[in-house]
Specification:
Length: 138
């Protein structure tokens, strides 16, 4: 079954397209976290960042970088958040890999904040944790 981004890519649902080539499309997010909030999406369907092949991922992040640069120069953004959510527990609501490019302005326009809980590192065994993740790379 097609997801909403597949429908947009196939031109079946309207969107505000910023950029398009054979592999990647970039559109304005329908719920603008800040003015210019953009989504960069591979045209081929991959569920998320973790399942996207490196070649396509590089193309997606190349476009994300260029859009971030444009938002700084054209919209007067003073910073940009580049982020992608993987899986529902991480806040992914559309199961088709996409990267958010969210321009940030002085004065808190948009009210968008990334908040992370901060745990006492002593409550984890950090050397063991590092070893576990390291082993997962092998
Ligand atoms: P995520 O929660 O990381 O999966 O992000 C999905 C994003 O897609 C959200 O920020 C939505 O606002 C956005 N979105 C959903 N439907 C549309 C649409 N039809 N056009 C543009 N953006 C959309």
């Amino acid at each position: 079954m097609k997801d909403i981004f597949c429908h947009i890519i196939d031109g079946e649902i309207p969107s505000n397209i910023i950029y398009e080539d054979d592999d990647v499309i970039a559109i304005l997010d329908i719920s603008q976290a800040t003015k210019g909030h953009t989504l960069v999406i591979p045209k081929a369907h991959y569920d998320n960042f973790l399942s996207c092949p490196m070649e396509i991922m590089h193309k997606v992040y190349d476009v994300a970088q260029r859009i971030g640069q444009a938002e700084m120069s054209v919209l007067g953004a003073k910073g940009v958040n580049i982020l992608t959510n993987v899986g529902e527990p991480a806040g992914q609501s559309v199961p088709h890999f996409h990267v958010h490019v969210i321009p940030r302005y002085l004065g808190g326009e948009g009210g968008f904040q990334i908040t992370m809980a901060s745990h006492d590192a002593n409550s984890f065994d950090l050397p063991r944790l590092a070893m576990q993740i390291k082993e997962g790379l092998e």
